[in-house]
Amino acid sequence: MNTIGVLALQGAVREHIRAVEETGAVALEIKRKEQLEAIDGLILPGGESTTMRRLIDNYDFFEAIQTFGKQGKPVFGTCAGLILMANEIEGQNDAHLGLMDMKVARNAFGRQVASFEASLDVTCFGEVFNAVFIRAPYILESAPNVEVLATYQNKAVAAKQGHYLCTAFHPELTDDNRFIEYFAQMVEQSKQTLAS
Ligand SMILES: NC(=O)CC[C@H](N)C(=O)O
């Protein structure tokens, strides 16, 4: 049985817990860095990236999450979580966790257009995915080893780099669980690879 943690400092935690449970994996709210030892994959939820970063520092999570990723364990960032994973943020000198080789823009669809829904063609799924965007970022540039999984208005809004996955939208806010299931499969694969 795989255990997937959701960083539970701020943001859309409960929705991710429910979505993870629906995949059949065990879901754990992560509030202390020691709990990272008990999980096979980690979700960084949506919320507010600056606030979440402050809490990551306050609760001494920064290096612990980077180490978790360097061990080859999958991390999935949604919305604010995507911003936390980028190694460059437009208009800011410093990035946050820097797990993925990509530059992101915050609130990139305009502050006025606070939230909207859009149907996306996702390369790894056969059918369209209805995505909920809330003050969403997008990926401005990415390295060749970052695979763009979906675009909206020609902007990259979902991507995968090895065992790292990110979406600019909130896959946990709809009944369509395909992104969480996709992540759960990445967790299963990495667990097998790490065990062999
Ligand atoms: N829904 C979200 O996670 C919004 C992210 C937010 N705009 C940020 O910069 O952190």
TrEMBL record:
It comes from the Bacteria. In the presence of PdxS, forms a dodecamer of heterodimers. Only shows activity in the heterodimer. GO terms for biological process: L-glutamine catabolic process; pyridoxal phosphate biosynthetic process; pyridoxine metabolic process. Transmembrane segments: none annotated. Belongs to the glutaminase PdxT/SNO family. The active site is at 79 (nucleophile), 170 (charge relay system), 172 (charge relay system). Its EC number is 4.3.3.6, 3.5.1.2. Keywords: Glutamine amidotransferase, Hydrolase, Lyase, Pyridoxal phosphate. Catalyzes the hydrolysis of glutamine to glutamate and ammonia as part of the biosynthesis of pyridoxal 5'-phosphate. The resulting ammonia molecule is channeled to the active site of PdxS. GO terms for molecular function: glutaminase activity; pyridoxal 5'-phosphate synthase (glutamine hydrolysing) activity. Pfam families: SNO. It comes from Lentibacillus persicus. L-glutamine binds at residues 47-49, 106, 134-135. This is Pyridoxal 5'-phosphate synthase subunit PdxT. SUPFAM superfamilies: Class I glutamine amidotransferase-like. Pathway: Cofactor biosynthesis; pyridoxal 5'-phosphate biosynthesis. The gene is pdxT. It catalyses: aldehydo-D-ribose 5-phosphate + D-glyceraldehyde 3-phosphate + L-glutamine = pyridoxal 5'-phosphate + L-glutamate + phosphate + 3 H2O + H(+); L-glutamine + H2O = L-glutamate + NH4(+). GO terms for cellular component: cytosol; glutaminase complex.
